[in-house]
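Q: I'm building a small set of examples for a reading group on sequence design. Run inverse folding on the following structure and report the sequence directly after it, with nothing in between.
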């Protein structure tokens, strides 16, 4: 079975990348920009909030090891899908919660995952399902950020470890770190 691709936006891409790099069945995570109206945006332009892009991740995964619906359940559990155009202190449409399905099947799964998340959520889910559009990889220094620079970044140190802890507790059988511990 060939690998599949998922594109998700859940706030800061450094934080979502760190989570999904620890998920069994994920073979690659790339940080980038999607959903905007200018070609080849830079990080500075996207952070300015006027390009329309979301900070997002493109996940390559093995569907024999990880079902798309399970991947979405992890996505909903490791960010706050009830915050409109923000995640914590990151505010703006570039930090929106969004799913960019690659197929009709993924869109159907996304709607089902939103319903599952909504059934246990403390508030209404504001995650959007948006059309797949041009993907722009983020600059090289954003890739594998947690593994390279993130541990010396105070923002990352405050945000990423709790997300990883939630993954490793709530989805222990899916976490590379939890399974190897």
């Amino acid at each position: 079975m060939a690998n599949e691709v998922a594109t998700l936006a859940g706030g800061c891409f450094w934080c979502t990348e760190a989570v999904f790099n620890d998920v069994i069945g994920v073979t690659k995570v790339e940080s980038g920009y999607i959903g905007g109206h200018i070609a080849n945006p830079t990080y500075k332009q996207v952070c300015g909030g006027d390009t329309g892009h979301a900070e997002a991740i493109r996940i390559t995964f093995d569907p024999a090891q990880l079902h798309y619906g399970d991947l979405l359940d992890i996505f909903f559990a490791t960010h706050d899908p009830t915050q409109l155009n923000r995640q914590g202190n990151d505010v703006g449409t570039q930090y929106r919660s969004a799913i960019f399905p690659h197929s009709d099947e993924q869109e159907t799964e996304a709607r089902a995952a939103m319903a599952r998340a909504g059934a246990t959520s403390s508030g209404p889910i504001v995650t959007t399902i948006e059309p797949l559009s041009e993907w722009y990889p983020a600059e090289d220094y954003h890739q594998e950020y947690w593994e390279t620079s993130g541990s010396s970044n105070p923002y990352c140190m405050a945000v990423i470890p709790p997300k990883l802890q939630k993954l490793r507790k709530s989805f222990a059988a899916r976490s590379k770190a939890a399974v190897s511990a």
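DSSP finds seven helices and eight strands in the chain.
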